[in-house]
Design a protein that fits this description.
By secondary structure, this protein is mainly alpha-helical. Helices cover 50% and strands 0% of the residues.
Length: 80
């Protein structure tokens, strides 16, 4: 199952308290402190539940999770 930009943005706002004003698919999430390191576990659990995938510990990197675009690309790669 795919995961949409809107779904992620609403989750970041409603569950993690992020200010999503002006945020887009390329906005850095963790490296710019939009989300803090304590949020990572919640983000992973949300992605797994929404996309129906299981993230490997080695996949938990900024290259896979630092933007919405990267999250969506990662999810697509796990569903192929």
């Amino acid at each position: 199952m795919e995961i949409s930009s809107e779904t992620l943005l609403l989750y970041f706002r409603d569950r993690l308290g992020a200010d999503i004003e002006g945020m887009d698919d390329t906005t850095p999430l963790f490296s710019s402190s939009v989300l803090d390191s304590f949020s990572i576990v919640e983000v992973i659990a949300f992605i797994e539940a929404q996309a129906g995938i299981k993230m490997d510990v080695w996949d938990v990197t900024l290259e896979n999770l630092d933007t919405i675009e990267r999250i969506k690309r990662y999810v697509q790669s796990k569903q192929v």
